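We were asked to recover a plausible sequence for a given structure. The inputs and outputs are reproduced exactly as logged, with field labels preserved.

PROBLEM: sequence recovery
POSITIONS: 64
GIVEN STRUCTURE:
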């Protein structure tokens, strides 16, 4: 009356992506990162340009 229990691994194995899919995902990620770097570069350049055109003024001494 007792059933035999099948010993199965309860871990779900994740299918490894195919090489082409993995390569495609990496290339897409690289494009995204390159765009982020370009955006950051543009922002840094703009901030530097603004700093050069803005006259330097002395900040008032805070009252104690």
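RECOVERED SEQUENCE:
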């Amino acid at each position: 009356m007792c059933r035999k229990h099948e010993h199965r691994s309860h871990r779900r194995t994740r299918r490894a992506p195919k090489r082409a899919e993995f390569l495609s995902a990496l290339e897409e990620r690289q494009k995204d990162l390159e765009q982020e770097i370009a955006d950051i570069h543009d922002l840094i350049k703009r901030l530097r340009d603004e700093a050069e055109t803005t006259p330097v003024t002395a900040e008032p001494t805070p009252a104690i």
